[in-house]
Amino acid sequence: MRTAAAAVVLLMMAPMLSGCFGGDEKAPEAPDSVFDSLCPDGIANNVWYHYANATDAVNTSSTFNGTDVLVGDNTPFCAVGTYYGIGMSTFEPTIGITSADNLYITSWGNGQSGSTAIVRCSNMIGMTGTIDYDCTDVYDPPTIPVANSNDPYVYVDPWTDRIMKFDMHALLGMTVEWSDDEGNSWSPPTVATGWSVQDHQTIASSPYSALAHPTTWVFCVNGNYPYPVCAASQDGGATWGPEVPGAPASCNSGGLTGHMIGANDGNFYRGNHGCDGGEGYSIYRSTNGGLTWTEHPLPTATTGKADTWNAEEAQVHPDEENNLHAMWNGLDNMPYYSYSRDEGDTWSEPLMIAPPAGLVGTGFPAVAAGAEGRVAFAYLGDSGNDTWNGYISIITDAFSENPLITTVQLNAFGDPLDTTADCGYNRCGGFGDFIDILVDQHGRPWFGLSHNLVDEGIFGTISIGPSLRGPLAPLPEMPVGGPATLASSPSGGNMTV
C-alpha cells in the first residue's frame, strides 16, 4: 500500500520536477529594448543614446524608481549626423536663418575687394533625395564694401528677418549694415562705435519695445574694462545709444562675453565669467533693452570652469516659452548643461552631457533651443590622439528627472575636422574664438563650423532625428552629406558656389 501511494505522489510531482531539472519549458525572454528596432539599419557607430555623465542608455535599464523614463517627450528617435560644405573658408563662423529657409554664414576675406562675405545657402534646408543646394556670397553693398573685419559677425532677427552684418575693425571701431530682402540689397554702413576699445563683439535683438523699429537691437563688446560694454538701437541699427556697463559696475567680470540672445519676453541674455573672476560662470540679464544688466550665477561649484583660451564661453539660449538653457565647459573640459525656468534666478543641477564615446575633452560650446524643453548643444570633441570631431547633442525633454540625450558625430570616423594638438582648447583654424548653432522653424538644428583640414566652412545637422519644434515627431529625412560636398572633393556634391 505504501509503495502504491509513493508512486502516486511521484507521478503528481513529475511536472514540477521536470521544470526544475530542465524539461521542455523555456526561460522567460527578456523584454525587447526600445532601441532594438529604432533605426532600420541599426544605430550608427557615431551616434549615442545616453543619460547624463556618459551613461549608456542602450545597455542600461530605462526604469528608474519603478518608472520607465523613455516615454512621452523623452522617447528616443533614430538619428544620424552629417554636414554640408559651403564652398569657401570661414573664420569664427556666426550663422543666421530666415523664415524663407535660407541659411547664412560669414566667410572672412572672401567678399568683394577682400571684404567679409555673407554666404547664403539656399535649398539646403528641406533637401530631399539628392544633394542639391546653392551657397553664394550675397554681400553686394550700394557703396564701397566695408573693409574685411577682424571679427566677422552675422545675425538674423527672428522676429523681422533683418540680416545684420556687424564688423569690428582692428580694435578701432565697428560698422553695421543690414538687409531686409534675404541679402539681395544692403543698407549703407552705419557706425556702431562708442568710447570703448572694440573686440569680441556680439549682437542680438528682442521684441522689447523700440521707438522706430519692431525690435530692439543690442551689441556688447570687450571694451578692455572690468566688464563688457553694451549699446542699444531703437531704430533697427541706424543709430546707437551710449555704451553702458554690461554687468554691474562693481562686478569685475572681465570684458569677454559669450554670444548674446534675445527672448520672446523681450529679455536679453549673455554668459561670461562671474563677478570677481572666481571659479564659475554667470548669465547676465537685461530686462530693459540693454540699459542695465544683473548677474545670475550658474551652478558651477561642482564643475568649475575651463582653463582654456575660450574659457569665457558660457552660452545661453531661451526656448519658445522663455525657459533658459545654459552650457559651459568645466575644469575637466567636458560640456555641462543647466536650465532655468525663472529668467535665470535659479538653475537646475548641472548635467555632464558628453556621450559614452571615450572623449578626451571638448571645447567651443554653443547652444540653441526650440520648443519648451527641447535643446541642442554643439561642441568639438577629441576622440583620442587629437582627433577633433563635431558633435550635436539633443535633449527633447529637458525637464525630465532623467533626460535622454541623443548625440551625433557630424563627421564619420576617418574624416576628422582637425588634428591639431589641443585644438578645442585654443583658437584653432576656422573655429577662431567661437562657433554657432541655431534651430530652424521646422525644428532641425544647424551648426556652423569649419572643416579645418580642407579650410572650408560647413553646416552640421541631423539628416534624421527628432524635431525641436512643434509636435514631437521625426524630421523629414535629408540626404547624408559629408566629404563629397566639400569644394576639395572631385564631385563637390551637386552644390553650386
Q: What do you see in this structure?
A:
With 497 residues, the chain is mainly beta. The chain has one domain: Methylamine Dehydrogenase, Chain H (7 Propeller). It has one helix and 32 strands. It has one helix spanning 2-20; strands at 47-51, 55-56, 63-64, 67-68, 80-85, 95-97, 103-107, 117-122, 134-137, 154-156, 163-168, 174-179, 190-191, 202-206, 216-221, 229-233, 244-245, 261-262, 268-274, 277-286, 294-297, 315-318, 324-329, 335-340, 351-352, 361-369, 375-382, 388-395, 405-409, 436-439, 445-451, 456-464. The strands form eight sheets. A six-stranded antiparallel sheet has the order 2-1-29-28-27-26, with no helix packed on it. A hairpin with a 5-residue loop joins strand 27 and strand 28 (388-395). The protein starts with a helix and ends in a 33-residue tail after the last strand.
Which characteristics define this entry?
mainly beta, Methylamine Dehydrogenase, Chain H, six-stranded antiparallel sheet, disordered N terminus, 32 strands, 497 residues, single chain, 4% helix, 32% strand, four-stranded antiparallel sheet
Percent range of helical residues: under 10%
- What do the pLDDT scores average to? 90
Straight-line distance between termini: 100 Å
Question: Spans with pLDDT under 50 lasting ≥5 residues?
Answer: 1-23
CATH class: Mainly Beta
